[in-house]
Amino acid sequence: xxxxxxxxxxxxxxxxxxxxxxxxxxxxxxxxxxxxxxxxxxxxxxxxxxxxxxxxxxxxxxxxxxxxxxxxxxxxxxxxxxxxxxxxxxxxxxxxxxxxxxxxxxxxxxxxxxxxxxxxxxxxxxxxxxxxxxxxxxxxxxxxxxxxxxxxxxxxxxxxxxxxxxxxxxxxxxxxxxxxxxxxxxxxxxxxxxxxxxxxxxxxxxxxxxxxxxxxxxxxxxxxxxxxxxxxxxxxxxxxxxxxxxxxxxxxxxxxxxxxx
Length: 261
Fold this sequence. Notes:
There is one protein chain. The chain is α+β, with helices and mostly antiparallel strands. The protein contains five helices and twelve strands. Among the domains are: 12-23 and 41-116, Class II Histocompatibility Antigen, M Beta Chain, Chain B, domain 1; 128-217, Immunoglobulins (Immunoglobulin-like, Sandwich), CATH 2.60.40.10. A four-stranded antiparallel sheet has the order 1-2-3-4. Strands 5-6-10-9 form a four-stranded antiparallel sheet, with no helix packed on it. The N and C termini lie far apart (106 Å). Residues 121-215 form the Ig-like domain. One of its GO terms (biological process) is antigen processing and presentation of peptide or polysaccharide antigen via MHC class II.
């Protein structure tokens, strides 16, 4: 009897959430797409999440698992992951819907979270980190290191960079995005000018259990700048000569008189 009363009390506490449902249904729906056989299906993920840890609120938007934007709730604006997406990030037409999602998510945490505390196991994923360059490696030329973090759940992490075991300042923001299966991935960027003796490390700390993943990067198989330029010039020259030869052959072929039967 006492258990049933507790369940009834929990349901009564959830009733105030029902007033939000008509508003959520009132959000305009996108027109139904007309699919053709020659078109491929693509996935656009608009994922809102909230949690007790940091960050307490998040929104990510991805196209076929490639993140486009995350939402900075302190400034109420989209932040593009790449400069090419900056113009699209200025669109604010859906700001009311985003603020509604934020309020709804926070109320769910406040109203339902305490009722489920200790009753549902906490799902965790140990993050996996790897580091690579954004462009082909050339010593002495500016480049960007990318720290890619996968198998992340919940999305509570801090990312720090070190150069020869010394902390590095000036890294960009950490972009967190959702992927299929309700897990998350993250990207952190660091602008560098690589040298042969460099040793960089990306240190990822999972805040929920203080688990730490470390990925190292050292220069490998770099092409000297002058060698790369010579190789590209040689390839371009070879293609030019080949084009001239093919052109001459075609001219001779089409100018040859046709033999009569």
